């Protein structure tokens, strides 16, 4: 084999241009550093679902920093379970066209408060193959590194797709348990997995599986009970916006959560209005033949909910911290739908869980009023709407922990996915002007003074620290 350093002269000898030789050098380098369960490898051609153009330099920078995050950081940056968002942030920046310098800034803004991973216990890693033993370590953050190494080893043997098939989509006790844990922690394990699948990075897939393994299973009883109730019902599923309205109009459900609740879904909605929660959730039933359009409907409705809730009369706009996550996770449902090796029944099931979770989150955030009129009422401070790509430098410049960049990217992906269905009445957000307004809404809310997010958009108390609109 010709060494990379000799490629250019070899190609010149054969009458091939320097630029072609340079391209072949890059190809040779990539072939020798393919993405594996332990090695990140990002290329300029793969920028995710927004399909933004990127450079070799940005790809190399993202690769190096993602590798550093993989090797040096735990999935929680403290013992309270606050998540490390670095891999999401870097790939979001990369996916919306950020420069190597912007990607480096994103890393530097967040690397200094991360925790080092626990040391691996080689003798215990092997035991994780036995689910009866693995059960003892589920939900315990001190075993994150062991789970990470275990899933990396499994991917080494089988490949990341077969590992997902075995450990997440199989339908046995173990995969059922892990799939439920994916929806914990405001769906952060699912978000982590999303970037692994979307960028086809086995190491990030392993991180997502390991992260899910150390989360709890607070949503388990609700998700399974709602699923069983839906199975027994013969009613046709309404539009998602109608279900959101039903949640709002159910006084017990809408007022179940209190500001002082630690976990407003678990301790509020499901603790005080369980029967009502199951009743509305049972109406979520997606047919396999409507998977694609219901996926877009879910994604678009999540954007609609979060955006309308971000506008409160007399206040500067702010997105709800929790509703924002329900938008940011949206791309994974498009990503998994594109893979025919994932069972359609699994895709449908995950989508139904997500829609039900959206409904419960709406209730948990005190059912902020939502309407297209609210969105249309928003006027940017400079009264000028700018195309989404023109706003991106302002996103790059933010000192962000990743949430804002993920949100702007998720909006762009949803906009593109929604175009096909803009003539349908079940799509609330449509038209370039409305989407442009929403991109500006995200940007302006993130740049504002005071808290960047509101936590409980339907509760007046949650807005007290947000500045008045002038």
Explain how this protein is built.
This protein is mostly helical and 470 residues long. Helix content is 58%, strand content 0%. It contains 25 helices and no strands. Helix 14 packs parallel to helix 21 and helix 18 runs antiparallel to helix 20. 48% of the residues are buried.
- Tell me the span between the first and last alpha carbons: 67 Å
The value of Rg in angstroms is 23 Å
Low-confidence stretches: 1-22, 27-32
Q: Mean pLDDT, as a whole number?
A: 93
Q: Report the β-strand fraction as a percent range.
A: under 5%
The biggest sheet, with number of strands, parallel, antiparallel or mixed sense and barrel status, is: none
Helix content: 55-70%
Gross geometry: globular
The total count of helices amounts to 25
Number of strands: 0
| Classification by helices and strands | mainly alpha
> What letter string, H or E per element, gives the SSE order?
HHHHHHHHHHHHHHHHHHHHHHHHH
